[in-house]
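Researcher: Please generate the 3D structure of the following complex. Treat every line as part of one assembly.
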Amino acid sequence: MTPPPAPWIRCVGLSAPSLKDNTADAERLLAALKKELTAEAVDIDLDLLKQLPLLLRKTGDRIRCTLFRDRRRWVLTGIDVPEAPRPAAGIAVDLGTTRVVLQLVDLASRRVIGEHAFDNPQIAIGPDVLSRIHHADSPGGLTELNDLIIDGLNAAVGEVCRRAGIEPHDVCVVSVAGNTSMTHLFLGLEPRWIIREPYIPVVNRPGVLRAADLGIRVSPFARVLVFPNIGSYFGGDLIAGILFSGLHRRRDPAILVDVGTNAEAVLGNQDWLIGCAGAAGPALEGGVSRIGMMAGPGVIDRVAIDPVGRRFDLHTIEELPPIGICGSGVIDLAAQLFLAGMIDVRGKLVSAACGDRLRVAEDLRHLVVVPAEQSATGQDLTLSQADLDSLIRSKAAMYTILETIAMTVGLELRELATFYVAGTFGCFINPRSAIAIGMLPDLPLERYVPIGNSSLQGAALALTSETAVDEIDRIRDRITYLELNVNSDFMNRFSAAKFLPHTDVGRFPSVKIP
Amino acid sequence: MTPPPAPWIRCVGLSAPSLKDNTADAERLLAALKKELTAEAVDIDLDLLKQLPLLLRKTGDRIRCTLFRDRRRWVLTGIDVPEAPRPAAGIAVDLGTTRVVLQLVDLASRRVIGEHAFDNPQIAIGPDVLSRIHHADSPGGLTELNDLIIDGLNAAVGEVCRRAGIEPHDVCVVSVAGNTSMTHLFLGLEPRWIIREPYIPVVNRPGVLRAADLGIRVSPFARVLVFPNIGSYFGGDLIAGILFSGLHRRRDPAILVDVGTNAEAVLGNQDWLIGCAGAAGPALEGGVSRIGMMAGPGVIDRVAIDPVGRRFDLHTIEELPPIGICGSGVIDLAAQLFLAGMIDVRGKLVSAACGDRLRVAEDLRHLVVVPAEQSATGQDLTLSQADLDSLIRSKAAMYTILETIAMTVGLELRELATFYVAGTFGCFINPRSAIAIGMLPDLPLERYVPIGNSSLQGAALALTSETAVDEIDRIRDRITYLELNVNSDFMNRFSAAKFLPHTDVGRFPSVKIP
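Model: Done. Output below.
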């Protein structure tokens, strides 16, 4: 079954002009569109208006319109002949700090016709948000950062369109979901005060902008929907995630967690939403240890340790000789080390159990995960005690954030019927391992629902669903943001969570503590 | 007494940011503005938003905003320090086919601080609307016409600002009133169908546009209000005229007439408005006869003829030797010729009465108005029978338009308490002469109120009055346009009006018919 076209495509017939009714072309079109859309107002760019009279006389007053909606106003983004018109496409963008992913959607069929990803070119300036914001303070720094992402996006738009056999000019709507800092750099807005107390963004709701004003090379009449943020640490990527998860439409409360450098969580249902975000540290993404890296060929992504013989069974992506370990691999590894008695409840390496896998280098104890002769690098792949300490802090932060947000509304985590885990990284976490180290609560595994790149999917929804545009606003307005920095109990709970799986082991009945 | 600043200037204080309320800069400003303006929405251009965070931190969250209003939306057009800010100015433009007039207004004091006029540079392409629209059909023709007027305006804006000691950058709002064709050429819109049945403009309500999109070099955030039209032959210049006259706010009906190549009339009061326009021909502006010309030094503007001795008493502008005759002079001349018995009721030259002032050249009878020895050109200044015939047709058209519009609503012209005569030309007409030839109805002279360049004044009102923006829309929506081309009685009435003063002399009791 072919899905109906997106609500942004409409074919309209205009009233015929006559001596008795010499209403102008634009107003005849507006009248037809207002009737078709039950819209209050429809904006038409001057340069688009210039194309209207000739087209109307060519088509006998019937045209295909592409539109977009900005709250109560509609915007005309293109006009064409009604039969066999040019394609009309939309592009959803997940604007990540590290990786940027684009999805190309054909608006007539609502089908995804292309996807493309690239490393955020701002990495050349700094790997993380902080270093980039500091760079923006230097003369020309903000422009440089803005140019990098806009140029990168334009190249990616060109590439994804080329592969789908359409022109960038055929793209009439773009939706962009990113964290607050990435969104500011994308818009060329001063990010300076995002990271300085009291952490004030320049804008919460960038709204719907002209692509041309942003330097995005698509249709000159295209609009860009930029997802709103709640504050400096709760961005549009999460709003997009909520939109995609449907959390805001559920009757019973559920939680959505995005696991990354920042641990971000939203708890709620159709009546209320509460969100918070806290720095979890890069450990959960595998970014801290010397052998940690992004998922890729040869990277260890799954670990099993036989608790009796303590033999390591490592799985690498594409089953190539190991070169490092990714985030989900690190969580697996820590869980398995703990269950095998090789690290204790504090996450400290246990000498007796580690045996000859233990090394001391630079005054620090290391565990050899892969000996040099088996690694693709020709060197030992090791995890240091410092790496483990960092991981413990990160998992404790994650758990404490979840606990705090639930407590704030008087719920216990185990009462949650659904636990959405977002993010490409989240998809690969083995929930059993995350539970074993006390990073995620001890829920039946079926309650964990990985939803993948929910930012991208949420951004794509905004391209094809008319209600999404309103839902975004409603989500934004309904979220209560819980500021963890001013929450005094947080540090106490954090300390209690810095054990494996937790000081209160009764919370993790499923974990077989050695 | 200093008038209050225009409603477009507001100083606002923003709520202070804190850890408990980390609302973004833009949203704090929007909240303050919405409260100040009781506005539904305020648009902020992205590039203006870029300036906001630094300014707020410099001023301690107090800023001066310049704004403009587009129906229910407000648009922020500038931000500055609250004390000793840059000037904020507006420019009103009367976009005439022949002459373009600018008025520069200081928005803080609402004072006119400059005025400048220039010939419409499109005259180089063609003197009238028709020739320009035909030129627009040729390749590149429309762009050429558009460039001419935009370049001309930019030069004039630069000049009027320079003389007032401000920068074009300080101009944050522009209002433009012109006829439908001039407005289309100003916007770069295809004028082709304006002059072809069924006479359809591209747009009736251009609305509020970005100056930058039009190529107008003022503040990059400035907006341009373009007055709406009713149709191809009833333009924004007339809407501006109605606004200025206040016709639409009167309890008792009055009429507004703009006398020019087109004779345009609006009749109405606070409850209803009816408008019509018809080609009167250039005769009324003095543009038809070989000696006709625009008012200027040496041009005959007033004529008296002693009915007994038939001596001509001519007045020229600056009392220089005569070089030609302007529109008001032609009307005076025709009236005096008629009252002196030198032309008959059909407007034909009476040989016996004209005596030696009569010449025949090129098979056509001419009246010598100024003999060669008294003229500045060294040649006879003559008026031909053809010129007179043309004048009769024009005055008949004018009168018939007035009669038709009044009849349509069941009123008699003599019932009208006020008769506004608009246009610089209208100002100089001697109503007594216009009545004598039956061009204007025989009302007591005090009912004739010349209101000057009402287009310019109406455009200027839009810069300083908040209600004007709504009034323009209400005027536009309330006017019933009477299409004369489809009015079958019109030609009968026109024929009856082709006599001096009229077939029905009872309508002109004050005229002493010789």
